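QA checklist item 7 of 12: single-chain prediction sanity check.
[x] sequence parsed
[x] length recorded as 101
[x] structure emitted
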Amino acid sequence: MREPETKPSNASVSAFLAGVKDPLKRADCKAIAKMMREATGKRAQMWGQSIIGYDQYDYTYASGRSGSWRMSMKKCLLSLSPIPSGKCVASTAKNNAGTTL
């Protein structure tokens, strides 16, 4: 399996969220971050400079092919992948004004 290009970093999740300029989007991103933390039971970690990661699930098919699913927000756009329980969640979020983040 190829080495992923985006890796965990020491960047601050709080600073990243505080840097979201639009106040509605910032509030929504913080709310989503809280929900993700509660859903995964994991602390947020920055991956690169714009992805907030919460969990990773590594898998291997019977064929030997393997990969990883991540639960993350990129630039405060929500991107959820299936988790081991088999549940899957929507892949986008809308802000309070009803526009896609």
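[x] summary fact logged: The chain has a mean pLDDT of 76.
[ ] second reviewer sign-off
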